[in-house]
Structure formats: structure tokens, C-alpha cells
Amino acid sequence: xxxxxxxxxxxxxxxxxxxxxxxxxxxxxxxxxxxxxxxxxxxxxxxxxxxxxxxxxxxxxxxxxxxxxxxxxxxxxxxxxxxxxxxxxxxxxxxxxxxxxxxxxxxxxxxxxxxxxxxxxxxxxxxxxxxxxxxxxxxxxxxxxxxxxxxxxxxxxxxxxxxxxxxxxxxxxxxxxxxxxxxxxxxxxxxxxxxxxxxxxxxxxxxxxxxxxxxxxxxxxxxxxxxxxxxxxxxxxxxxxxxxxxxxxxxxxxxxxxxxxxxxxxxxxxxxxxxxxxxxxxxxxxxxxxxxxxxxxxxxxxxxxxxxxxxxxxxxxxx
Amino acid sequence: xxxxxxxxxxxxxxxxxxxxxxxxxxxxxxxxxxxxxxxxxxxxxxxxxxxxxxxxxxxxxxxxxxxxxxxxxxxxxxxxxxxxxxxxxxxxxxxxxxxxxxxxxxxxxxxxxxxxxxxxxxxxxxxxxxxxxxxxxxxxxxxxxxxxxxxxxxxxxxxxxxxxxxxxxxxxxxxxxxxxxxxxxxxxxxxxxxxxxxxxxxxxxxxxxxxxxxxxxxxxxxxxxxxxxxxxxxxxxxxxxxxxxxxxxxxxxxxxxxxxxxxxxxxxxxxxxxxxxxxxxxxxxxxxxxxxxxxxxxxxxxxxxxxxxxxxxxxxxxxxxxxxx
Lengths: 319, 325
Prior knowledge:
With 319 residues, chain A is of the alpha/beta class. Chain A is built from nine helices and eleven strands. In chain A, strands 5-4-6-7-1-8-9-10-11 form a nine-stranded mixed sheet, sandwiched between helices.
């Protein structure tokens, strides 16, 4: 009887639940252009856009925000002080750019502090760079190996670094699409799973889901997409030359077809909780030197869109 | 990846009982293992009367998989690798070097795209001769259209070296020895040669290779594209990832060229377009003014020169490529 009563008793009130969830899984705001929506761990955010549309830069800025400390020797940096795992499927990550942006960010935060001591700058840089973990892979089987063995690595990170990994980044999720589509389905025996795009993506989603249960993380994945027709209407020429005849080819002409073609299997699509679209825009009269980009939330769909440029420091600036 | 049978000799835990258990669940190779839920498999092994041994076998395969995995690197290790192993190679043309902040970086896949006679091959030949001369590095030069000209290399080397130098002849010989040219006429041969190169670089037989040039990759890839199947695109992506792997793991600067075709409305576009775009690190557009014969180069994509040089285009006459002042 006592146990039944015990069982009937509420575990916690709604208020207690809310307090617990907000402390255990706090809402998180990422740097622009992802700043419109709050995220929490367990969310899977997809950044979709043609190439080039600053997708990797958005990931890098979010990573920098995560690895920076909240405060260090009395200076406010406003970061999360947590580790980031970056899985590079595109194999195009440039660490020089990453460290350059990180340094700029550090200098920017210290600018209004008197007495810049240089010795602790280097120390802080080292601490931040150690929080950034990187791996690359050249085919989807390697990616699956990484996912299968990631649990141990995350466990180790949890012990060595305070708080453990907070962000898992995948750049970009559709990199092996064509290779996987042509995988031979070797169904020699009747109960053998055939190796196919569907099967690879299913396993991938299953492994990430399992990781998220044990290690609460936010997943950020970029995905390159082709907009509209097959022509390269989305190509941006960063520095159009003057006067030459062949240079007249205008990649930016033609109507912008806003719908992107979804090519990932539905198991991935339903795994994604938030989706943002980035694309280069025609609107560049005011900032002629810098290409302008447009962002739009597709999931959940928000009615407004943000414009941003990449300034001369290589930083994203919302207009 | 290996069939389980072939692992038996090296790992006694993967015995015939374990293989039979795996086969009953449709697992014959390590690949099959990867697409299976290992927790589910362990639970199934639990029900078996030989469960202890089977679970050890699963752990064994898992550790084999784990050993194959590349290590995770932190930011500092990455930076160290780039600073020590990935140098910037001069192309031999001062203007291009200045434009690209030093030249072509090892580890990067650089694509030159442009219409015919815009100077793609000239840039390749000059870069090859300069890398061979200045760094005494070996250059693998793959051509698909007989565009390689050793005469031109001789010209470039003559211009680069000091005329007063009486060792000019031996330098020239050295340079010519360093450049290894292969004629390749289809993508299968290309993949074959790239695999051979990967193998020989891994076994340290060829540690002096600094640069790999493919002129032109589009004429090898575009014939297999099209149609409804995915195989053409798969071959293209495979070649692209193989090139990126070679570039990164062996610190090579890889240069490929891509020609232009007429697109819709008479506007020319790169022969390898939308789905190729994601592959190279750097895309440079070459174009030529037919009246003045001046070529210009502009950046379509670059990992770190994104905007620093936003409105600078380098102008080069073909003479400039000849005479690097």
C-alpha cells in the first residue's frame, strides 16, 4: 500500500521540472545568423545553402563562441568554455583561418581592457585551441567508424575537460551522397543488409541519436544544396574583372528559385529539428566589395529573413 | 575492408563459431559490421549459449575498427601540422603569387577554370617548372589532351635561372628529371594511377613529390557524367576525395583544370559545375580578353582569402607568364 501511494505521488511539480530542465539543459543562443532561435542540447540544426555561401564560416563562428571562456583573468569573453567536435566530411577545413578568427575575437574582447598583458594571451589561445577537436574522413564508412567509436572519445573528453563536448559539427552531411548512391547492393545472401545510401544514413542517424542520449550535445550540420535549375546561377564572383569579354558571364543572372532540392533520405530529414537556409543575394549595391547573403529559417519557418555580409576581417556582420 | 574470414588468422577470437553467428545475422565483412547495431548484436549474442566468447569476438572486431580510425586532433596539433608540413609553393609568376598570398598551398586542391586559351595550361606548366627548380620537388603531371610541352618547360626554366649561371644545363636536367608526365585518357585510368601514387607515397618510396597536376580533369570526368545513373557522379566524387586525401595526407599541392562549355543563353559555364563545386579548396577563374590578349585571374572560392582581396583581380598577359619580372 505504501509503495502504491509512493508511486502515485507526483515526482516533481511543473515548476521544479522547469527549473531542473533549464539548469540541466539550458537554452542557448548561437552567434548570428543563428541568433533568432534558442536551441537546447539534443537539437539538430541543419544549415543548407549552395557553395559558396559561408556555411563553414557560420560553423566556425559558432565553434569559436563555444570554445571561448566566459571569463578569463577578469576579462569578459562571453563564450561557453566547452569543447567542440568538428567532423569534416568535405575535407576543406582551414585551421589557419580558424586560428586567425579566434585571435581576432580575443583581441576584440580585450580591446577595452587596460594593460594588455601578452603572456596570458598566448595561454588563453592554447586553452581555446585545445577545446577544438577535429577529424576528417574520406568516405561514409570512415564516418561510420568515427561515429561508432565516438562514445569512448566523448567519455575521455568529459574526464579531461571540464564539462565535456557541447557542440558536434558535421561539415557537410551530403558530401558522400553520390558515392553512396552508387554503392553496390551486394545482396548475395537473403538476410544480408545491403550497403546503400539509405542504410548508411539510417545507421548514421541511429548512432548520433544514441550518442545524444548519453552525451547531451547540440548538433550543427551543414548541407550543400543546389538551388533552382542545374545552371550555376548561384555562383558568386567575388572580384569581377573589368572590361574583358569573357568576364561578362553573369552567374548571378536569372530568377532565383528559392526551393532547394532535398536529396538526403527522409530518415535524416526527420532527424533535423531546425533548418536554416543561406544563399547569396543580388542585393549588393551598398557593399560592393562584399557579397551579401540572405538567411531564412525553413524549420520552424519564420517569416523574416536576415542579411549579412562578410567584412574585411572575415567576420559575419548582420545588416 | 576485410571479410571476417581473412581476420581469423590474425585474431584467434574471430573463429568459425563467431563467423557462423555473424553469418546468421547477415554479417560477412567488417563493412557489414559497420552498418549493424552493435548493441543489438551484443544482446543477441547474450541469448546464445556461447555468449561470453561471442561478446569477446564483437569487442575484438570493434577494436579492429577503432584502430583503423584516424586520431582526433585538437586545434593546436592541426595548426602545428599546417605550419610544419603544409608550405606555400610559389607558382613562378610574381603577380599570381602576390595575388594568392604566396602561391599554392600544399594540402589544397586548387582548380583553374577558364575557356580555352585563357592560360590554364601555361599556369600549370610554369608552376611545375618552378616547383621542380626552386624546391627540387617532384611534380606528377597528368595530361589528358597532350597539352604537356617539354619545350615550354625549358623556356620557363631558362627565364627563371640566371643567364650568368654556368650550371644552367645541369639545373635544366635536374628540373626535367623531376617532372613526371603521364598521359591519361579516361577516368578509370586516372583512378588507377592515383591509387598507385597513394600506395607508393604511403610506402615512402616517393617522398619528394610536392605537386600533382591534372590538365584537364574535366575532359576525363565530363564524358562519364549525364544519364540517369549516379555512377558518373560517383566516379567524379571518388576522384575528388582521392585527390583531397593525397593532398592532405602527403602534403601535395594539387592543381586541376576545368574547361568551359556553353550554358543556357550562350553564357559559358564550367564543364564540371554544381556538384563538382564542393570539391576543390580553391577555385580560380582565368579569362582572356581577345583584343589585348591579356588574361586575368579572379577568385571564385578560397578558404581564407575570402574577402581580403575582394575586388582585386590580377591581370596577366601571357607574356607576364613568360617573363616573371
